[in-house]
Records
---
Amino acid sequence: MPQERGAIVWFTGLSGAGKTTIARTVAERLQIANLKVEILDGDLIRQHLAKELGFSHADRIENVRRIGFVADLLGRNGVIVLVAAIAPHRAIREELKQNCEGFLEVYVNSPLEVCERRDVKGLYAKARSGLIPNFTGIDMAYEVPLAPDLECQTECETISQSTAKVLQKLVALGYISIDCRG
């Protein structure tokens, strides 16, 4: 069945929670179904579209706005956009929700201790030693979504279970029409 309309699925949560992993797995399933899909990964955006931005409050807001702008352009053109970005400030996520059609907030919930154990890049250790200032979860707060459209609890769910939840939500909202089982 042809893709009817685009959507923005914004995976938010701490570094190491599983945002990018879930987004990639969802993307694979959508690509298998011949749907138009793009992943906007927060780390890659910072390397290209926002490389001059730091990690101050204002720079983080600007970074998220840029990602939101690109996601909205793609979504309005029938693409399912999977955004994997911490976006630590609740207000900017709410702003995007109000201004971007088809915006779904997915809270990828994992305790800080679990995220630190998963940290293959050693970012949390660097942040705790003071080498990375303003690191979300250590010396900068992450504002948990109050009413996300979906929550994936990656400490107790498999990637397959989280992926299925996201796909089922997209089906339920009429963005896609695919079989969500395995």
---
Amino acid sequence: MRVAIMTAGSRGDVAPYTGLGHGLARAGHDVTLVTHERFAPLAAAAGIGFHALPVDPRAELESTAGQGLHRSSTGAGKLARMISMARALVGQLTDDLLAAARASDVLLLSGSLGPLGHTIAEGLELPSMGVYLQPIAATGEFAPPVGGTRSLGRVGNRLAGRAVNAAVDHVFAATAPELRARLGLPRTGARAARHARERQDWPVFHGFSELVLQRPRDWRPGLRIAGYWWPHDPPQPQLPPRLRDFLADGPSPVFVGFGSSTVPDTERASETVVRALRAARLRGVVQSGWSGLHAEGEDMLTVDEIPHSAVFPAMAAVVHHAGAGTTAAALRAGVPAVPVPIQFDQAFWSARLAALGVSPGPVPLRRLSTEVLTAALRQVTADPDYGQRARALAARLHQEDGVGPVLAAVDRLGA
């Protein structure tokens, strides 16, 4: 069956679907990853097809509007700015999403494209499912991940979750009605369409483990947790010679990287990281990423893109932004973490790491200082319990098969 996996966003919003797509392809399906052009090499490495979408997410984050995200000091403010950016861009994706869907038999849709993709599936009479990386549906058990970590009580959490979903509907408020008219569908607003999906119990699989976040008891039946979809990496990825030599030349270093997140002051963040590592008497591997972090000296090495699965197991700890994908990679490697959440759901995953006992707690970017980061680094590397808990959890995660439930559901659609 021809399966299109549709997603938009940063690298962390794309990489897990290479593992999901590779698993579906190995089972005999013809899989195409539909996402931004800059991620075409990820699909090629996974041995799956690719259909390019316009918009460069890195360029958007580096734009004036993207830099405005850093001027918002609250989760609500950042969410409002991101919704405004997405609303202005989403219409540019429609033509290519339609073209990819017309060459497919089933659509698997990320949370970022779920509403738009579902409309396309409805108009083309194609079966579809959600494949989400975050718990988007409202629940009384925790506050919406994009809004922070403070519980508002069961009623408050559900109301806040519904409010976030209504805000996200605003992204598609202009594009969805135009698309429905183009496909000959009855005119329906984005919010009404979401309510219809919920009433129909539209299936959504979530790409994280119940060992990390248990399925909320008040979710509707069609919302399921599948397990992690690990990014597809080469069976034996080769590290750059400089990195191999650095690892062999001393004790295990600490990895520092903020992935696809950007920071308002690259120089200040880099200096803080280097000073904290040296104050804690630790060596560092600093990944430049989209933030442009860098470090110099015999005890530091700056690297570009490297598969997390290849480098994380060699680390004493990982300092990361706590995006869903990087959080999963550190858990898979069995390495403790110091999360530095920057925006959106990162504070949520940081709190989960602390609750699991594999992190001493987050150091939010707005509070990042040499003293605070040094203390966290000393704690996470000096106390062996963090590493022991991380390794025990990793062993259990390796026993799970996140692709299997999705594969079974796709096979049922083709039966």
